[in-house]
What we know:
This protein has helices spanning 51-57, 73-80, 119-127, 130-133, 161-171, 175-196; strands spanning 34-39, 61-65, 84-89, 96-97, 109-116, 137-139. The protein is of the alpha/beta class. Strands 2-1-5-3-6-4 form a six-stranded parallel β-sheet. The longest helix has 22 residues, at 175-196. Zinc ion (ZN) is lined by residues 12, 14-15, 17, 21-23.
Amino acid sequence: xxxxxxxxxxxxxxxxxxxxxxxHLVPSIEAELHIAxxxxxxxxxxxxxxxxxxxxxxxxxxRHVWQRTHACPKLIELIQSDRYKAYLLxxxxxxxxxxxxxxxxxxxxxxxxxxxxxxxxxxxxLRKSDWLQALPKLxxxxxxxxxxxxRRNQQPGHLCxxxxxxxxxxxxxxxxxxxxxxxxxxxxLKVFQADKSGHALKPDQDLK
Length: 208
Ligand SMILES: [Zn+2]
């Protein structure tokens, strides 16, 4: 008896899925803004991380790993660049709605820093980083609930990282691009769940 017959197919190196690759469906999005994902060190290895899809989809998106002891040099470079005006996307009492941004008048693109991790990790990253606390803060005004059910311990109204990206694009007037991301994500979630159950998505559930 060959063991090959019962072994799982190899995961696609691009999307990590075994039964139904979604790499060719990742949208290619351009917008006049930069989203910097500041990831908790635990985040990149989680298969439930959705920030990687934002990184693959949005041309102007970068990923940085948070360090407790010092600010990330590459991210500081972006914050100090003449090209951008930096904001931290984080809901606090003094956060302003995204629509209040006045960067366009200053000829600068918004640099939006998104804390990528569980909400407990995000709050810790902010608490331990003076350089983040010093940034002006923006909050989203989502009108829909998260579709993302893969993680436990999520607070109501907490969007996953990819949904945050889609919401940012929508609130800045990039409606079509936002919908492209949402559309991809909706499909990915179905494929991901089928993949975890050990099969490809059935044709009648496929992307319409
Ligand atoms: Zn793939």
